[in-house]
Amino acid sequence: DVKVTQSSRYLVKRTGEKVFLECVQDMDHENMFWYRQDPGLGLRLIYFSYDVKMKEKGDIPEGYSVSREKKERFSLILESASTNQTSMYLCASSSPDRAAGYTFGSGTRLTVV
Amino acid sequence: GQSLEQPSEVTAVEGAIVQINCTYQTSGFYGLSWYQQHDGGAPTFLSYNALDGLEETGRFSSVLSRSDSYGYLLLQELQMKDSASYFCAVNTGGFKTIFGAGTRLFVKA
Questions:
Q1: CB-CB: which of A44, A58, A106 is closest to B42?
Q2: CB atoms within 10 A of CB B102
Q3: How far is A21 from A108, CA to CA, in rounded Å?
Q4: Structure confidence by residue, pLDDT tens digits, A82-93
Q5: B60 vs A77: CA distance, rounded Å
Q6: Which residues from B are below 8 Å from A48, CB to CB?
Q7: Which helix (H) or strand (E) holds A21?
Q8: In this predicted model, what pLDDT tens digit does every residue of A23-71 receive, in sequence order?
């Protein structure tokens, strides 16, 4: 069974902390994505990567960075967490075949206090 | 700006047919996808339409009209387990996909 695994289901961090969210996929997918999901706003793209060490900004990259050192792993970094970054974070991966869609992880619910 | 519009909520009866609409306004269009998400779960891919017409997967069908910038998801023989949120998503080119805000479907007995 193909999988995208996010390291934490729930996280609580303090304002100003540096936060790492980890995502691993076992499908040998080239493309990986980080979205945040907020009620009424749907899923908004933060960053994506189409190859190792390659990254592109999405629609809301401010306050975030990413790292992709290996094909299977894509990390999201909150440099200095703020309360407005409290959200559900979803990692996804895909092959180049658009018709196959994205495979999502179960999400990390991050609360910044 | 770019936007996808879909109803916030839809309610239907078990065994019935329900249609969830999606209207999009984007700078590019390569295809329309649909995802299902149960509470607390991950979004799961349902269907993809790149060309006008119908795609069928079991009880679920999706239709696209590019000239109207419109698509819809049709769910037949509704079951209680179909209660979930449904998101339309447009691939705008390259690796970028924009998601709608989601439609919450309530299936009643």
A1: A106
A2: 26
A3: 8
A4: 999 999 999 999
A5: 37
A6: 95-96
A7: strand A19-21
A8: 999 999 999 999 999 988 889 999 999 999 899 999 999 999 999 999 9
